[in-house]
Amino acid sequence: MTIYDLKVLNTKGEEVSLSDYRGKVLLIVNTATGCGFTPQYEGLQKLYDEYQNEGFEILDFPCNQFGNQAPGTDAEIGQFCSLNYHTTFPRFAKVDVNGKNEIPLFAYLKKEKGGMMGSSIKWNFTKFLVDRNGKVVERFAPTVTPEKIESHIKELL
Asked: Rounded mean pLDDT of 90-103?
């Protein structure tokens, strides 16, 4: 199995195949609108603006599992991100990233890159970098800002 075999739900509840992103460098992030790390949306958008035309995509997965920090509906979360951070990268339906209801994508990412944090995701804004071949190459802790990831993205582009 590869990342391209997985499907996720968009904010309209429709299935999206990750094979749609084949050949792109991906940064997959579990996010929240009421978190101390929420201002990272600004840095994520800057990366997206800078590298989208070179084959870079950010896949945003809101998650309410950590401190109830993404309590809104998918529409409310989208509105918050658009109004406050002017985000334009793809946002998907709110998900669980740990536990019995975790989506297969995050189970796969954790299996590929358990990292020093172990396999479970500890908080919002954990980031996974995927190369153009679908290989999960790096996992970044929530404290690692988008700016610190830029050089890793540039290497893969």
From this structure: 95
- Active site (annotated) includes residue 63: no
Q: Name the residue range of residue 30's domain.
A: 3-156
The single residue of 8, 35, 81, 95 carrying the catalytic annotation is: 35
Distance in Å from the first CA to the final CA of the chain:
24
Tell me the pLDDT tens digit for each residue of 103-138: 999 999 999 987 555 588 999 999 999 999 999 999
Domains of the chain: total: 1
Instruction: Kindly state the average pLDDT of the residues 51-60.
Output: 98
